[in-house]
Amino acid sequence: MSREVHSMFAEIAGSYDRANSMLSLGVHHHWRRRTVTLSGAQPGDRVLDCATGTGDLAISFKKAVGKDGVVVGTDFCADMLAFAPAKATQKGLDIQWEVQDAMHLTYADDSFDIASIAFGIRNVDDPLTALRSMARVVRSGGRVMVLEFGRPLWWMKPFFTFYSRVVIPLVGGLVSGKRDAYEYLTRTSAAFPTGDEFLALMNESGMFRERRTVPLTGGIAYLYIGVVR
Ligand SMILES: C[S@@+](CC[C@H](N)C(=O)[O-])C[C@H]1O[C@@H](n2cnc3c(N)ncnc32)[C@H](O)[C@@H]1O
Predict the structure, then answer these.
(1) pLDDT at position 1, please?
(2) Is the CB of 103 under 6 A from ligand 1?
(3) For the chain, what are the domain ranges?
(4) I want to staple 193 with a disulfide (CB 3.0 to 4.6 A). Which of 21, 45, 168, 198 is the partner?
(5) Is the C-beta atom of 5 inside 6 A of ligand 1?
(6) May I ask the CATH class of domain 2-228?
């Protein structure tokens, strides 16, 4: 499956940011800010952003950790990552970018204070392996932050069902020319473990001493916070 996911993202890389802003109506910026705030990132911290894509979450983290902090943005798709350095440079931010598979990170144990993944865990072949891989490179007491789509809360459901089944494939298809990529997004989001189901997966990983979740925007997205053992 990862080969198909890789080529799908390589194909939509050039239109990814535009489609993202249109489809999320800008709300994704708020979700990323919440991720950084709830991570407790401090100036000087070392942060690893996995499946960083075009780099937006890594950029948000760099603003929080400042000049003395280190941020490494990684993705297994070089075509997505290719757009990240210019975005960071334009903002005067020094971030390292590396091609890495989130399931097989090559960094030493305890290399980071925080590891994050936004809208990426749903795409990896084995989320449990990715969680373990991310937690391994974070020091004890550090955090793993997972931001992902989920099943919306009851009051958001009618709106979001229509939006995700009709608007997302239509608009995403028009902007990217790849309607199937946006049908994939809707299909995989609806099927992915949400809330307590994902917390159970974090528990199963055996890597976290605390876990909690925060629904965002009526449960369209969820933030999962794990404190590493
Ligand atoms: C929906 S995009 C999210 C990008 C970015 N984090 C954001 O919030 O906009 C998903 C990203 O996951 C990456 N990805 C999927 N599987 C991966 C893996 N096993 N290791 C690293 N990156 C992966 C894809 O290449 C893609 O860039």
Answers:
(1) 58
(2) yes
(3) 2-228
(4) 198
(5) yes
(6) alpha beta
